[in-house]
Specification:
This is Molybdopterin-dependent oxidoreductase. This protein is α+β, with helices and mostly antiparallel strands. It has ten helices and ten strands.
Length: 411
């Protein structure tokens, strides 16, 4: 039995040695890992902060002030969030490739610090891969899972940020040592640089990288940057209008859709039928002191406001359009005004999330928050919310409620 154990152990060691030799190519160096790690850290921070802002808009808390102006604020933050998440894909894969040889260090665990290091890496890699994967699936609106995307995505964001902080703390000595490249002429510095090249043992600790190694390392970084750039150019056009013609990787592109505006959920997908929005449609307004029902013709008879406002969706696409309708605060005044706690908006839709949304008072008071009746000077298409919808500055598209049924003042 002992002989079989020894033979198996020797075979494992030979396999590990061979794998280490195959994977310890010049680009797979600590310096490359640190460079990619810096980029990954910035992208994670950007995604986390912009995602947190989006979460707070969708789940407002009373003590935190929200700002409807500038009207393009959410358009910028959510577009940045999605673009940074997509660019993270090649950067994350590049970093995993760069640290791949570390999987074959032997023995795999040498003490408590090694256990903490391996644990932080496992948590970081696992949470990052799942977070990016479900984010990309949400952009494509492909929900091949039973759990709530928003809830899981939010929780995993905290796990990912925590694992990044833990990983940085564990690897801080290496990060400091390899933060800057070794100067080409060591004699030009006051102190000779510390050994900062191969992470794996080298027969000559003072050996400097050859020109071929430096080019190979540079080539690895260029490959990651080129992939990230291609993804950026192929998707940025879904929110950056001048690049719209290049948005070949985007599920939705500006100008494509009913009335020249993309649609996430059609009336049919939301379960809204034509008879639900026929001529006998009315919207119920429950104000601070009274309630009333208004038909579409009665809304159209009220003073109208026209404004250029963006639709900015959580999937990252956005487009500015011209909307015409009645300011919400003026309609509420007909029912006694508000109580200062915002309103609850209800849709006719029977399928999908956000059939009810809460609008904080700061948006209710904004003169550009409209009960919109027209888009681009034409009556709303049913897929854009006919007979009436909400359009407000600085709010996520999922909260720009379509197919209005009622608006109720909160107390």
């Amino acid at each position: 039995m002992a002989g079989l154990t020894a033979a198996a152990s020797a075979r494992v060691e030979r396999f590990v040695d061979a794998a280490r030799e195959r994977t310890s190519t010049p680009p797979r160096r600590t310096r490359t890992t640190v460079v990619l790690g810096r980029a990954l850290g910035v992208l994670v921070a950007v995604c986390f902060l912009t995602g947190l802002y989006s979460h707070l808009l969708q789940n407002p808390v009373g003590w935190l002030p929200l700002f409807p102006r500038p009207v393009w604020l959410y358009q910028v933050t959510q577009g940045t969030h999605v673009l940074a998440g997509l660019v993270m894909v090649p950067v994350l894969l590049g970093k995993l490739w760069a640290v791949y040889p570390r999987l074959f260090t032997w023995p795999p665990v040498t003490g408590p610090v090694a256990v903490l290091e391996r644990g932080s890496i496992a948590l970081l890699v696992g949470s990052a891969l799942v977070e990016v994967a479900i984010g990309v699936m949400n952009i494509a609106q492909w929900y091949a899972f039973d759990f709530s995307f928003r809830r899981v995505h939010f929780v995993l964001a905290w796990v990912l940020v925590g694992s990044v902080i833990l990983h940085i703390a564990v690897k801080l000595p290496l990060i400091i040592a390899f933060w800057r490249p070794v100067p080409a002429d060591p004699a030009a510095t006051e102190q000779p640089p510390a050994r900062t090249w191969p992470e794996h043992p080298d027969p000559d600790p003072d050996r400097r990288p050859t020109e071929a190694e430096a080019i190979s390392r540079r080539g690895a970084l260029i490959a990651v940057a080129a992939s990230a750039g291609a993804i950026l150019l192929g998707t940025a056009g879904q929110t950056v209008a001048p690049l719209a013609s290049l948005a070949v990787l985007s599920p939705r592109r500006p100008g494509i859709g009913p009335q020249g505006l993309p649609v996430n959920r059609t009336a049919a997908e939301a379960g809204v039928r034509q008879r639900d929005v026929d001529d006998d449609w009315t919207i119920r307004i429950a104000g601070a002191t009274s309630a009333l029902a208004l038909s579409r013709s009665e809304l159209a008879a009220l003073p109208q406001t026209t404004a250029d406002l963006p639709i900015a969706c959580v999937e990252g696409w956005s487009q500015t359009a011209t909307w015409t309708g009645v300011p919400l605060r003026e309609v509420l005044e007909l029912a006694g005004g508000t109580a200062g706690a915002g309103v609850r908006v209800t849709s006719l839709q029977v399928r999908g999330a956000f059939s009810r949304t809460v609008m904080p008072q700061v948006y209710v008071d904004d003169p550009l928050t409209l009960i919109a009746l027209k888009l681009g000077g034409e009556e709303l298409d049913i897929d854009h919310g006919y007979p009436a919808r909400i359009i407000a500055p600085g709010r996520p598209g999922v909260m720009q409620t379509k197919w209005l049924s009622s608006i109720e003042v909160l107390r």
